[in-house]
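Sequence in, structure out.
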Amino acid sequence: MAVASHAHDQTVLTSHRITEGDTLTQSVTWTGGLQVAAPLVDLVPGQASSGVRVVDFTAADGGGWLLELEGEAGRDYDLRLFGVQARISEASGGVTAEIRRAEARSSDVDVSAEAPRADAFLLHVRFPDGTGRRLASVRLRPGDGA
C-alpha cells in the first residue's frame, strides 16, 4: 500500500490479485488532519455577501496547512476548525488571528448536519481597516492552539 500526497488530499493506492469468485474487503482508516468551515450565510440571488470566503485550504510546504481567505476590510470573522488541535504559525495580509476552543454548539455552521463536535475550535480573524474586500492567509500547524 502507498499513500500519494497532494495539495488538497491524499490518495491510498493498493494492488491486489484476486480470482473469479473471490471477494476482497479493504478498509482504510484516516486520523489527523484539519477541516475548516466558514459561517453559513443565507443569500438570495443577486444579494451581495460581506461574509468571509475560504479561497483555498491546502497542505503547506514543511507541514501544516495554508488557509487563504477573502473578507471585508475592518471586519471580524469566526471560522470553525475541526480535527487536530492547531496553532497559528503565521498570518499575512494584515490580518490578526487567534484560535480558541469553540462553544458546544453549531448554529452558525453546518458540517454535514453533525452534532457539535468535541474537536471544534474557532479561528477568529480580523481584517485590517480600509475599504473593499481583502485577501489574507493564515498558516496553521498541529499543536496547542487554544
